[in-house]
Structures are given as C-alpha cells and as structure tokens.
Design goal:
The complex is a heterotetramer, with two copies of chain A and two copies of chain B. Chain A is of the alpha/beta class. Chain A has eight helices and ten strands. The radius of gyration of chain A is 18 Å and the shape is globular. Chain B folds into two domains: 10-49 and 157-294, no CATH class; 61-147, no CATH class. Chain B is built from eight helices and four strands. The chains are: A alpha/beta, B alpha+beta. The interface between B and C is large, with 75 and 75 residues. One adenosine-5'-triphosphate (ATP) sits between chains A (25, 31, 49, 51-57, 100, 209) and D (151-156, 181).
Chain lengths: 252, 296, 296, 252
C-alpha cells in the first residue's frame, strides 16, 4: 500500500491568502463568511464539503471569476481584489482551472482546446504541439486529438478539461471535482498528474466529495461547512492495495 | 500567428449570419440613394434657375374696330386684379417691343410693323412657394377680363422642379432612416453574438486573454462579414443603376441633363460600400470593447 | 393552458431580436412602395393618352416679297426630309384653317383674314418608343430649311411620362428585391434561432413533446415579434407618406392629379403590414416544422 | 449493515430488449457490437464499464436519441427502431432520463424544469404543483424552487435532473451517472428514490463507475467492455456501516 505524502513546503510569501473573505450572491445569505487562509507555496490540499457548501464559490474567488463581498484575496503576494482590470490577465496566466462543468469550447478540437492557454499567452507553435501531444497521451486521449468535444464521453471531456488546466504549468491549479466522471483507475492516474505538477512546485487545490479518493492521500483537507472553512489533517482511513496497482498499471 | 487563429466560432452565430445581409441591404439602398440624389442634383442644376416663379397672362386684343382705350382698360383691370392677390409679388406689362420679340419666331421680324392687333402680355411674379394659386389667379383675372388667357407652362416646369426636389429629399430621408435602422440592427447583432459567446469569452478571459485579443477577433470577423455583404450590395446596386441608366437613356438627352458622367453616379457607390463596412466594423469593435469591460 | 406556457426562452435569441426589425423595415419600404406605385399610377392615368408621340415642325414664312412657291418648296423639302427618317411614322402638313385655330388665342379670330405671312406647321408622328430622335429630326430638317423650328414640348411631356413610368417600375423592383432579401433573412433568423434552441428542443422531444407543440410555440413567438415590427414599420411608413403628402400639396393640383383619395394610398399599407407579418409567421412555421422533421 | 435486494421480477414480455444491436458513429469503429439483452418488467440494473466504454451510447439507444446501426431495440413489446416518428412521443413519455450532463433548461426555474414532462403530457396544473413540490423537497431543494439552474451548485443541478426524470413515474428510468456530483450521503438518498420507484414497478438502469456505490446494492450489473455487454452478478464486496447511516439520517 502506497500513501502519497506531501512534499516539504518552503516558507515564504503565502501563495494563496484569504483575509476575512465573505461572499454573498445577490439575493441570499452568506455562502462563505469571514474565511481566513494562508497556503505556503507548493502546498497540496483537498477542498471538501457537502453539495452546496460553497466549494465552487471559493474556487471562483481564487480564479477571479467572482469578487468577494468583503475581505481580500491575495495570490502570490498580489492583492487581486484591488488589482486593476488590466493586470488580471497576467495573474490568470499563472492559474490553471478545471471547471466542474468542464467548459470546453465546442467549436474547437480537443487539441485546440488544450492548446488555448498557450495560444493566449503567445507561446511558439512547435512548443504548443509537443506539450499538448504529450499531455493528451498521458490522459489517454491520443486518438481524440482532432475530435470535437461533442463526440466525447463524459470522462473523456473531463480529461480534456484537466489537460487544458495544466498545460501551461500554472503556479496554482484549482480543480473542481476533477475525477467525478471517471472510473477509479483513471482517477488515480489523473491524481498522479497533479502530484507530479505539485512536485515541480505548483500549488494544488482539489475540490471533491469523493472520500475514498481523499483517503488515499496524505494531504490536508480544507473542509467547508456552514460557510466556514476548517483546515483538517489528512483522512486516517486508507483504502487498500488497489491504489498502488492503479498507479503502476494505468488503464486508458 | 496568433492573431490569425480564431477561438470564436466563425459561423452559426447571429452576427456572422446577419451582418452580411444587413450591410448588403444598406449598401444597396445607399448606392441607389446617393446615385439618385446625384442624378436629381444634376437634373435640377440643368433645369435650374432659368425658370423663375412667373406666369404670363395674355389679354387678347379686341377687334380692330373697338377703341384703343378699351384694350388699355382691359389690361389695367387685369393688372389691378392681379395686384390684389396675396400670392402675387409683382406685375409687369410687357412693352410692345418685347411682344414683338416673343412673336418673332412665329410671325417673322415684321410682325410689329403689321397692323395686326397684338395681345397685351402681363408677367406675373408669384410669391415664393405659393401653391394652388394658378386657379385663384385664373378666376381673378377672368372675372375682370373674360377672355384672358393664363399661360402656366413655366409654372408647370417649376412645379416639376419642386417635385424633383421633393424626390431628392425623400430619397435622402429614406436612406437616412434605413441606414440608421440597419446600424442599430448591427449593434444588436453584435450584442447578440457577444451574448451567445459569453461562455466562450469567459473561458478565454479566465485563461488569461486580454480584451484586445477578443475584440480584435470580433472586429476582424465583422470586417470580413461586412465586406462580403458590402460587395453583394454593391453588385445589386450596380444592376439597379444599370436599370436606371436604361430608363434615363429612354428620356431624351435634351430633357434630362447628361447624367452618365456626373461624379456622384460613379464615385459615391463604392464610397457608400466602404462607409457601410467601416461603420459595421467600428460599431462591432466599440460594442465588443464596452461589453467586455463590463465582464469579470 | 399548456399552449400559453413557454418552454422556449422568449428573448435573447436571433429570431426574437431581429424579426421585429426586419419586418419593420419590410413594412416601411413596402408601404412607401405601394403608395408610390399608387401615386405614379394615378399621375400616369391623369396625364394619360392625351399626349401622343408627336412633334410640330414650323416652317417660317419667307418675307412677303418672296414668291409664294418658294414657301411651298421649303415645306415640301422639309416633309420629304422628315419622311426619310426611320423614326418618323407619319407626316402631315396642317391646313391653313388649323393654323388659324392655333393662332386664334394669340391673334384673335381675324388672323387668317390678315395679310400676315403665316408659317406652315407640320405634324410629325414618331415611331413608338423611338428615342433621341429629336436631334436627328432637327438636324435633318434644318439641313434643308435652315430656319425651321422644332416644337418639342409635347415630346418633353411624353418623356416625363416615360420617366414617371420608369420610377414606377424602379419602385416595384426595389420593393421586390428588398422584400425577397428580408424574407430570406427571416428564414435565416428562424434557422439560427432553431440552432440556438437545438438543445432545448432536443430536451423537449426527449421528454415526449410533439413537433406541433414546439412549432406552435415558435410560430406564436414569431407572430408576436412580427406584429410588433409591422406596427413600427407602419407608423414609420405613415410618417413618410405624410411627408410625401406635403410634397404633393406643394405641387399644383392641376399638374398632379389628386392623389389623396386614391385607393392604394390608404388601403394598401395596412395590407402590406398584414402581409409581412403573415409572411414572417408562415415562413417561421414552415422552417421550424421542416427542421424538426430532420431531428431525432 | 443493510444490503438492498431486488424485488421479485414478474415474468412477461421483456420491458427492454436488444436484438443483435450494433452502434457505430460516423467515422469510427463499433462502439457497441452485437448486443443482446432482455430485461423483465420491474428489473433494476447497474450499467458499468470504464470511461468511453459506451454506457451513455447504450442509454441513448434506449431513450431514442440514437438509432442503432444494426439490430433492433424493443421497449415494452414495441420495436422502436421500426416505429413511425409520430409514435415516438408516446413511447418517450414512458421513459425518464437523467442525462450525464443534466441538460437543464437554463431559462426555466427549477420548478418548471422538473414540471416539464408533466406539462408536455398536459397534466392538470394542481397535480403538477403537488408532485413537483414533493419531489423537490425529497431531493433537498425546497429552497431553490424558483432559482434558475445557473445559480445552482453541481450537486444541486444533478438533483434537479433526477427529479425531472422521475416526476411522471416513468415505466423505465435511465440514469447516467446520477450520483457523480453529489456526496455519499445524498447519493444514498437518491438511490433510495430509485429503489422506491422500482418497488412501484419501474424498470431502472443506472450507468455508473462508482464501484463503492454498486457494491452496496444486491442488483445485477450489466458490464460494458470492448463493445460487448456481459450480465454479471451483484458485486460481492460491500462497504460498511455508513450506508445504513446515510439512508437513515440523510443530510441536505
Ligand atoms: N451565481 C450564483 N448566484 C446565486 N447563488 C449561487 C450562485 N452560484 C452558486 N450559488 C449558490 O451558492 C451555494 C454554493 O454553491 P457552490 O456551487 O459553491 O457549491 P459547491 O460546494 O460547489 O456544491 P457542489 O458540490 O454541489 O458542486 C449554493 O446554494 C448555490 O445555489
Ligand atoms: N456523437 C458521437 N459521435 C462520435 N463518437 C461518439 C459520439 N458519442 C460518443 N462517441 C464515442 O463513443 C465512445 C463511447 O462514448 P460514451 O459516451 O458512450 O462512453 P461512456 O461509457 O458513457 O463513458 P463515460 O463514462 O466517460 O461517460 C467514446 O469513445 C466517444 O468518443
Ligand atoms: Mg461545485
Ligand atoms: Mg457517459
């Protein structure tokens, strides 16, 4: 049985910092209230909580799709809540996001979808080609390079979404339920991808309600409940031999 | 490299479907309108000021055995009646020598020398823009001189000029209304297409794309769509102009000034087409940028 | 109950955005067009057949001391020259009594009795539809009789009729082209809106909805959008007609026949508006049904 | 520990029957080939298989969104592959489908989305109101009746999709990954809903790759792999005490 351990996280400016952050949508009560959090560079966390707890909302604050009602969000030392609109693209290029509903561009091929963050950042075309190809074969979609998202199965779409999120080696990866549509074997393979990127220095936050998955990794949990965030230690329960097996003999 | 790529769907959205049509209609009508206005202008400046707002009243001479004074009295009565009309600005009795000149083509140089009883002619200048006066004038004059004759041919001609001028204004008006409506429609089309692409644009933004990156793609798209439509409209307009040309040839050159070579007829339509394409593109670009600014 | 509910988004798609505008433009132009055609028709039937394709050639009399035969020879030469022209259908020299009648208003009853040398007048009937002949005619006649005068006023008038007829045809042509283009655009708009709703329609189908259920919702939507646009177009058209009315009043009633009361002017525009709304709705309904049939 | 057992299934015409069914999309190889299957009325099956195996494709054949390339599909004794287009709505009204990507109508409220199948079938409005309200409170969305899908969390959307699928008590319920976006507690509650409907006579087929879920129920599995379908016995592995607990103390 193999349990994945987090790398040592170096000290320094927090990569992600929430200061007294609250979020309330137009018409309702606080979804998130007075959250405080500071994650060191290179951290790896699960974000857990029941359906509707606000996991996606918290990630939205981090990927700048939503402004907090109160408080401030800091990424890599920059207060993004105060940042000028002009400076946001530069910050966003350091982020990689796996959306819960994938958000693939329907009119672009799988290849072009994954290449998007590189193209937007004006990367040279040969580099794009090699990076995207390598990544697509890692997630087992070499045969679907030119397919449109509409013809993919649910799990295939999810893998494209993950590939797009990580293709530009972002400093912070925010993944919303990234293994919800795939079977356990592929899930473990995808987790392996996140672990590799984390070892290379990326901060990772994975929102999930899959307890079996969380249990296999010795990473701390950020638990959302009743609008509040608690940092919990890794789940002690660990499931079995399959995890080793899944990672060593990945299926496509 | 990147700017040639497209992250937006290039077909199937409102803007790319409609803009060519809208621009085509705009260019077509615009072409007709500017050519029409140019033609009307040429016609008007051809007919021009030669014709003033005058009517000639003719008082036939009484039989030779009547007194000379009777003729003079008839003319005076008519002049007085005319002067009383509010629509009449000025009244002038033509001198005999003028009458001779008018009759010369009919009667030869010697008419004045003959003992023929010539009519008296009264030149009546009408108040500018007075309408429906000819009947009033006729009745006023014939009341006092029953056999007076009103020669209103010049007036007819003037009215023809008025009518042409009216068509000119109407053409400009219709062109303006239609152009405005279509420009508005292009704004709507762009907004609709932005709304359709909201999801795509949001993904582009979240991936780190700048506004200019998105707006440029839209503007290029619109430009190409607009030029397509503009070309179509120009071709349709050219056909219509050709038809007008045939019509004009049908009208004798003496009647209508030569319109074939006038500047407006050949230069303005391409300008209209350029204007429409530019209008569409700029409209789209501004609409996109201002909409993008309001997005997260 | 159910038929009043909507499972389709009622705004924000191409069709509901564009159809009102398109129908409005269509009704506006249609209104102008049918009214214009009605007006032209009235004008034409007013001027009508009274004017035939004739030109009068006038051969001035030689000074009295010349021989009588010389005058006759000049007239004969002119007649011969005219008869040789291909564009001339008939030539007739007016009898002296006819000339007297023509001159009567100018010279009184006794002109014929006087010793005045009257010109000879030649009535020339032109071949139907022959154009640009007046110059040819003038040069042919003046070659043989240098001081002959061509009176082409009637021809002018006839050309005026031609021109009006041309405008009438042009109006019809433009109206047809624009209407066709806009009808096509409505088909596109409906298709676009169907494409946008593909997902919604597919869910409705999979939930057990019949085609009629979906198509009826679309048709109603289009009908309401079309009536909105049609009302707008009618109002804009009415304003334009009012402007035309002002113009027409400016032109003396003797020159233009009374157009205010003609049938077309008041009855046709609402018919156009009804036609446009119906066209849009029927187009949408057919487009929807045929598209639905091709879906699973 | 409670293991859910299937009810006795009466004999009779098969509710669902596949005869030698193959499916191939435009440009590829067979996704499904020569499948044969006959499910008696009142059956309850899991449909399993790795990502991209063809689970969604098989369900599409059953809910008439896709015609088989070869073979025939029979529902309740009717050959739907040969049926006229006119007669399809009547058949579809006997089906309830939970789509993998939910397919909620964005412009309709949660209530109207769930009411859709009843409205399409011209059910009386009071009946619609009571049925929809009851169902929405069962799935824990009483507070979101008038919300638009766009403001819902992933798990909330999924519950709306399930409510819409079962609201008209369909004779055949086809659910594609119906618990992929919710936590275990809600998943068990949703499964309970399917079990109740099954007891009332509905046929149920649930496509899933969640092995932990499958393991808790003593229902047979239809396993898709390499384009072929195998009927397997219930998974012998069963997880733990939580299942009881989850069902008896449901969380919202
Ligand atoms: N745009 C929005 N407007 C209004 N309310 C919203 C909006 N987005 C989310 N909410 C509400 O905020 C709450 C939290 O939603 P969120 O999507 O963050 O939950 P979650 O933890 O991601 O749940 P899940 O696991 O089901 O995806 C929910 O009650 C949801 O209805
Ligand atoms: N419309 C389509 N056109 C072409 N190929 C398709 C289409 N839909 C699905 N496919 C292909 O068929 C295969 C099976 O897809 P399907 O969606 O049935 O898989 P699945 O078992 O549901 O997978 P998942 O668990 O990931 O949802 C996939 O390889 C997919 O790419
Ligand atoms: Mg979520
Ligand atoms: Mg699937």
């Amino acid at each position: 049985m193999q349990i994945f351990k987090p790398p040592e996280t170096p000290d320094g400016t927090a990569a992600v910092e929430l200061k007294n952050v609250s979020l309330r949508y137009d018409d309702g009560s606080d979804v998130l209230s007075a959250l405080n959090l500071a994650l060191p560079p290179g951290s790896f966390h699960f974000l857990t909580g029941p359906s509707g707890a606000g996991k996606t909302s918290l990630l939205k604050l981090l990927y700048l799709a939503q402004r907090p009602t109160m408080g401030s969000v800091h990424l890599f030392g920059t207060d993004v809540t105060a940042a000028a609109r002009r400076s946001l693209p530069a910050i966003r290029r350091k982020l990689g996001v796996v959306f819960q509903d994938f958000r693939l561009l329907q009119h672009l091929s799988v290849f072009d979808n994954v290449a998007l963050p590189l193209r937007v950042a004006a990367a040279p075309e040969p580099e794009i080609k090699s990076n995207v190809t390598e990544l697509l074969s890692w997630v087992g979609l070499d045969n679907f390079m030119n397919a449109k998202p509409a013809v993919l199965s649910g799990g295939q779409k999810q893998r494209v979404a993950i590939a797009r999120a990580v293709v530009n080696r972002p400093r912070l990866i925010l993944a919303d339920e990234p293994t919800g549509s795939v079977d356990d074997a592929i899930a473990m393979r995808l987790m392996q991808l996140f672990i590799e990127l984390n070892k290379l220095g990326s901060n990772i936050i994975i929102a999930t309600h899959n307890e079996q998955l969380v249990a296999r990794f010795e990473y701390s949990r950020l638990a959302l409940a009743d609008s509040a965030l608690t940092e919990l230690p890794p789940l002690s329960y660990r499931s079995a031999a399959e995890s080793d097996q899944a990672i060593n003999e990945p299926q496509t | 490299m990147i700017s040639l790529r497209t992250d937006l769907p290039w077909s199937g959205d409102s803007a790319s479907r409609f803009i060519p049509w809208l621009v085509a209609i705009m260019v077509f009508l615009g072409t007709l309108a500017v050519s029409g206005v140019a033609v009307f202008d040429t016609i008007l400046s051809g007919w021009s000021k030669a014709v003033t707002g005058t009517v000639t009243v003719q008082i036939p001479a009484l039989p030779a055995d009547s007194e000379q004074e009777a003729n003079q009295a008839r003319t005076d009565r008519a002049v007085k009646a005319l002067k009383d009309l509010p629509s009449v600005e000025g009244v002038r009795v033509l001198a005999n020598t003028e009458i001779d000149a008018l009759l010369a083509p009919w009667l030869g140089e010697r008419a004045a020398a003959s003992d023929l009883p010539l009519p008296d002619l009264i030149d009546v200048t009408l108040v500018d823009g007075s309408t429906a006066t000819i009947e009033a004038l006729r009745s006023a004059v014939t009341t006092v001189v029953h056999d007076a004759i009103i020669d209103d041919h010049r007036l007819w001609f003037e009215h023809l000029i008025d009518l042409t001028e009216g068509f000119r204004l109407l053409t400009i008006g219709v062109a303006l209304i239609v152009t405005t409506a279509l420009a508005l429609t292009i704004v709507y089309a762009t907004r609709a297409s932005l709304a359709e692409f909201k999801e795509v644009i949001s993904v582009l933004h979240l991936t780190g794309a700048r506004d200019a990156y998105v707006a440029t793609q839209f503007a290029k798209r619109t430009l190409s769509a607009a030029f397509k439509g503009s070309a179509g409209g120009l071709v349709a307009g050219a056909f219509a102009l050709f038809a007008i040309g045939l019509l004009a040839r049908n009208v004798e050159s003496g009647f209508l000034p030569d319109i074939g070579l006038s500047l407006g007829f050949w230069v303005l339509p391409p300008l209209v087409s350029l204007f429409a394409a530019t209008l569409a593109t700029v409209t789209a670009f501004i609409t996109v940028l201002s909409t993008l600014r309001s997005m997260v």
